[in-house]
Design a protein that fits this description.
The complex is a heterodimer of chains A (about 120) and B (about 110).
Chain A: E1 4-7, E2 10-13, E3 19-25, E4 32-38, E5 44-51, E6 57-58, E7 67-73, E8 76-81, E9 90-97, E10 105-107, E11 111-115
Chain B: E1 4-5, E2 11-14, E3 19-25, E4 32-38, E5 45-51, E6 54-58, E7 61-66, E8 71-76, E9 85-92, E10 103-104, E11 108-113
Parallel strand pairs in B: 2-11
Antiparallel strand pairs in B: 1-3, 3-8, 4-5, 4-9, 6-7, 7-8, 9-10, 9-11
Chain lengths: ~120, ~110
């Protein structure tokens, strides 16, 4: 099946620093990747949709200058949380689709970010 | 009103019980329905997907869609402690007119007791 990896799985950083999270599709080419945020006991909140080679589309209320997304290749997308603050602490999950009509999303294992 | 409503639970059942998980939705454009399972501190994994109305069975899992009632269900037969997880429903219009965005339910936490 389609496998998506994320790195790192967990990161702790100081307030004001930037953190980069990588999302890779390991055995398929992902035309589209999605970035989600998930708070405890809540559902996935879509942050942005990213297509290879083009600018990401951000959901309403998500600051694009705060959450920088780069989709440089068909197997790699990165999310950079710039000038992180404690309220950015969350579980960040990416997903990728193989394209076509049945655009089923395959999720990465998630990255837990804790900002002190 | 949320587009997708799902009771967060928790739902606790004894091993071997039949589990019924449900979601309701308001957008009649949804036609692609999915169930994901998410273990604690892990990403969701796709369990089943169905297109339009009807039933789909895969081993101990059965997905049901009733578009007239805007109601979908996931049944788990002979539930096992390893089924303990959060189950998220998800749906999408998957059309040029309705769009392709997938909307997720809040997830139902299931505990299967040995």
């Amino acid at each position: 099946g389609a496998v998506v990896s994320q790195h790192p799985s967990r990161v702790i950083c100081k307030s004001g620093t930037s953190v980069k999270i990588e999302c890779r599709s390991l055995d398929f080419q992902a035309t589209t990747m999605f970035w989600y945020r998930q708070f405890p006991k809540q559902s996935l909140m879509l942050m942005a949709t990213s297509n290879e080679g083009s600018k990401a589309t951000y959901e309403q209320g998500v600051e694009k200058d705060k959450f920088l997304i780069n989709h440089a290749s068909l197997t790699l997308s990165t999310l950079t949380v710039t000038s992180a603050h404690p309220e950015d602490s969350s579980f960040y999950i990416c997903s990728a689709t193989t394209g076509g009509f049945e655009e089923t999303q395959y999720f990465g294992p998630g990255t837990r970010l804790l900002v002190l | 009103q949320k587009e997708v409503e799902q009771d967060p639970g928790p739902l606790s059942v004894p091993e071997g019980a039949i589990v019924s998980l449900n979601c309701t939705y308001s957008n009649s454009a949804f036609q692609y329905f999915m169930w994901y399972r998410q273990y604690s501190r892990k990403g969701p994994e796709l369990l089943m997907y169905t297109y339009s109305s009807g039933n789909k069975e895969d081993g101990r899992f059965t997905a049901q869609v009733d578009k007239s009632s805007k109601y979908i269900s996931l049944f788990i037969r002979d539930s096992q402690p390893s089924d303990s997880a959060t189950y998220l429903c998800a749906m999408s219009p998957r059309s040029n007119t309705g769009g392709f965005k997938t909307i997720f339910g809040a997830g139902t936490r299931l505990f299967v007791k040995a």
